[in-house]
Every structure is written in C-alpha cells, then in structure tokens.
Amino acid sequence: MILHSLYFWGLAASIVVCSLGVILHRNPVVCAVYLIACLFGVAGLFLGLHAPFLAAIQILVYAGAVMVLFIFVMMLLNLKVDPERFSRSKLPRTWKYLVSATLLISLLALISMTAFPNAVASVVGGYQVHEIATLLFTKYLFPFELASYLLLIAMVGGVVMAKKTK
Fold it and tell me: What pLDDT digit, counting tens, does each position of 87-144 carry?
C-alpha cells in the first residue's frame, strides 16, 4: 500500500510540475513538450488504476497523435513569443493572490466533500478491452462513425487552410 501511495504521489507531483511548465513557459513548443510529459503522467496514473488499455490509448492518441498535430501546427504558424502576454497587469497583486486563494480553498472544500472510496469501489470491476470493443461497435456504432467523420472533416479543413494559394 505504501508503494502504491508513493507511485501515485510521485506521478501527481510530476503532473503538477509539468502543468505549471505548460502555463508558465513563454515558448509554445516547450509548453507542448511539457504537456506531452503531463499526458504521460496521466497514462502512468491509469496504469496505477490497473487500466492498461486506457494508458495505451492515452499515450497513442493524446501524447502521440494530438500533440504531434499541435506541434506541427505551431511550426506551421511560426509562433513567436508574445511580450504583451506576460506584461504587468493593471490589477494589483493582492487581488490576484486573494482570488487564487479563494479558488484553492473552494477546490479543497469540494474535494473534501467527495466520497472517493465509493467512487473507487464502483470502478474496480471495470471493463475489459473486449467489452469496450463490443459496446463501441454495437450500441455506440453511429456515434463512433460520426466522430470519425468529424475528425476526417477537420483534417481535410486543416489541409485546405494550410495550403498556400498561388
């Protein structure tokens, strides 16, 4: 049980650090790399929950395909560092800290009211890969196909928009 807790808290800390890197770094490509590391941490949490299929999907789909697409778009758009983005705000720092502390206290209050043991107990049975595939291709076939067509349309639209006119 101690090893499981250390595994969880280690991954949680790395996810928080990588998330801070995503929102605090000035270079968008470096932010994307931090996001990839964060997504790998989430995949590690899925492995800790004995959900290897979700971990594999997390790595393949999000950390792989989606982030490669994000980095490709960033390189295509040739994004520069925006100095105005990090300029001093007119709002005094005390108000920023007060709002941040209020949000943090609200979040901690909501977390403390959540019944996590009940939530974890309901997931322990879980679905196996075969059951997920059966549901995906029987009951949810139409939404699955609709999502694939939507992704195809988005991909074609991205290619058309990126194509330069002569």
Answer: 566 667 788 888 889 998 998 888 788 766 655 554 555 667 788 788 888 988 998 8
Gap between the Cα atoms of 81 and 77, Å rounded: 12
pLDDT of residue 47: 92
Q: Which long-range contacts (CB under 8 A, 24 or more apart) does 128-133 make?
A: 129/53, 132/53
Q: Which candidate, 77, 69, 58, places its Cα nearest to that of 32?
A: 69
User: 99-117 as b/e, with b when 16 or more CB fall inside 10 Å?
Assistant: eeeeeeeeeeeeeeeeeee
Distance (Å) of CA 91 to CA 37, 79, 95, 101, 156: 33, 28, 7, 16, 43
For the entire predicted model, the pTM comes to 0.61
